[in-house]
Structure formats: structure tokens, C-alpha cells
Amino acid sequence: QVQLVESGGGLVQAGGSLRLSCEASGRFLSIDVMGWYRQAPGKQRELVAVISSDGRTNYTDSVKGRFTISRDNAKNTVTLRMNSLNADDTAVYSCNAVSSRPYWGVYWGQGTQVTVSS
User: Fold this and answer.
1) What is the pLDDT of residue 102?
2) Which 3-state string (H, E, C) describes the chain?
């Protein structure tokens, strides 16, 4: 079982920056993938960025060059640095983790609101 606690988010003007952090805790041996998803009003949830335990990353096209995902395996944390934010980035951002040891599971944080004012 993995519990995810997010921090960060809030209100920012267009062009500004924010940082989201997520810490995993619980009974697990390792977390294979950590990442961030977002859901805007009236839209489906979409992947924003993910990072594997060995540092490989994947971003949705709309955030490439603006967002950076990183993780600290020793602390079981993942951070999303968001620059050059625009109104289209407004959404609820949720932390995600996939663990296979000792049992396979997909886990979600409670979500944090990011609002970009134009």
C-alpha cells in the first residue's frame, strides 16, 4: 500500500512558475514510476509527466520545454517544476505512483488545484 501526499499548487499569473511535490509513504519496497496527471474542468484526465526509477522521463507535448519532472528515490518524492504557465495549464494535478514490490498497484494522491490567471 502506498500513500501519496501532494504539496504546492495554487494561483499564479500567466507566465509564472509553480512547483508541485509529492511524497510517497507506506509499505512498499520500491516505486517503479512516479508522475503527475491533470484534469481540467470538462476534460478527461491526461498524463503530464512521468519518471521511472532510473530517471527516464516522458512528457505530454504541451508541457515539453516548460515543465521538468524529477524524483528522489531515497526520499520517495517526485517534483514537478512548471514554468511559463498559461491558462491551459489550469487543472487539478494528481500525483501517481506505480509499485510492483511487494505487490503491483497504482496509487493516486488527493489532487491539488493549479489555477493560472490570464
Assistant:
1) 85
2) CEEEEEEECEEEECCCCEEEEEEEEECCCECCEEEEEEECCCCCCEEEEEEECCCCEEECHHHCCCEEEEEECCCCEEEEEECCCCHHHCEEEEEEEEECECCCEEEECCCEEEEEEC
- Going from the C-alpha of 108 to that of each of 13, 71, 114, the distances in angstroms are 27, 16, 17
- Residue whose cell numbers read 516505486: 31
Q: How many residues does the chain have?
A: 118
Residue-by-residue pLDDT tens, the chain, 118 positions: 899 999 999 999 999 999 999 999 998 888 999 999 999 999 999 999 999 999 999 999 999 999 999 999 999 999 999 999 999 999 999 999 999 888 889 999 999 999 999 8
Task: For residue 60, give Cα distances in angstroms to 14, 66, 73, 93, 100.
Answer: 19, 11, 23, 14, 24
